Amino acid sequence: MSPNLFPTLPVLEDLAELVTKTKGRILEGSCLVCVQHLLESTGSLFEACEQLGLLSSDCFVLGKSYSASQEVFDQCIKKGIHVRVNRADGKRAGFEKEFTNYVDRLWIEVRRQLRNKKYKQIIIVDDGGHCIERLPATISRSTSIRAVEQTTSGVRRIASTCPVPVVNVATSAAKSFIEAPLIVDAVLSRLTAHFPPPPSAVGVVGLGRIGASLATILRDKHYQVFAYDDRHHCLPGVTNCRDARELLHRVEYVFGCTGGDVIRPEWVAQIRGEKTLISCSSEDREFRSLLDYVQQEHLDVIRDAKDDLTVKLPESRLRIVRGGYPANFDRQNESVPSRDIQVTRGLLLAGIVQASLLTSGSSPQLLKLDPHAQMFVVEDWLHHLPERQSSYSPELLQHFRDVKWICMQSEGAAVDMPDAFYQAESVRA
After folding, report:
1. 84-to-21, 102, 128 alpha-carbon distances in Å
2. Are β-strands 30-35 and 59-63 bridged in parallel, bridged antiparallel, or unpaired?
3. 120 in the same domain as 81
4. Residues 325-367: pLDDT tens digits?
5. Which of 161, 236, 326, 368 has the smallest CB count inside 10 Å?
6. The model's pTM
7. Residue 185 in domain
């Protein structure tokens, strides 16, 4: 096993130790094919997989250009991981369109490896559904394939044509309820130098887990919060708008939390004053149509050292934070502090373990992340980071001691997994 080059994260260490004690080195003879953000904690996840028997040379990873840390990339190369990052060609076509070409190249590299080596299984660890969607039929026919998906957009992408068994980390109870405040804290911490003081007016488009958490935190900080959600969700103390257009006119700061387009190009001529647009979703979805319009119309654009774009218009200035990519991804070593995001990495490791233990005849469908595994990861995280308990209501934390509640709040088909496998006491004894 290659030496550790990434931070030791207690939740990953505890989970890997427990799996090794109860099931052995379950990833021996396996191959990992990943689309992931190249962050330190992602490297820690790969090293936890090594503890379970994975060889670094059997790990193939595609990072994303807007989030990849050069230091993490270099460390992955040093470990012998097959790693690459997509590089934009300067012509804007939307992240998805150009990224799929790199996913295809990743699978070509895996196919070359398969000419010389046979694996007992390939486990896809995906962020956005691209890697699962682009799985070549020639590989799926000849090798046992299982997958893990960690984003809601990825689940939507593959839900109707799920080609292999996919462990659904994305809409597990633990990721849905526990991760959101951690992401919001990270986004707001990136904006402190530019964000106005309360009671300034701010807007949130989309009141899913991230959006609702963001709106609640901003409200509690005494901002005037306006919101729009096309499913008509509402929150106490937050002013609902009829549509995103009305919200844009009423605030100076707009947080996009929908996973889809927020602003239509035809609204641009009517915008007045300065507006700051901030994506809290994945990839460049929130302001994609606006960015395409800016390029097509050859509008005057300034890009600063942080990749923020300022678009000069006759009656307004639009500042698009990080060029439309998620605000907390700035190519640093971590998007969320490692001590916090280890809960998400723990859920991914649990998903990889579950995928590895699936029977060979498992149906191609979305599967719940085992609720016992979720309970273990959340309890272990809070055990190591007890100060984080104050970020959640006592009622919610009590729910995470109830396997039935966790199961009900997690999407996907249920799979029987041995509950004793994830008893926290067995690893802390």
Report:
1. 33, 9, 17
2. parallel
3. yes
4. 998 898 899 999 999 999 999 999 999 999 999 987 789 999 9
5. 236
6. 0.92
7. no
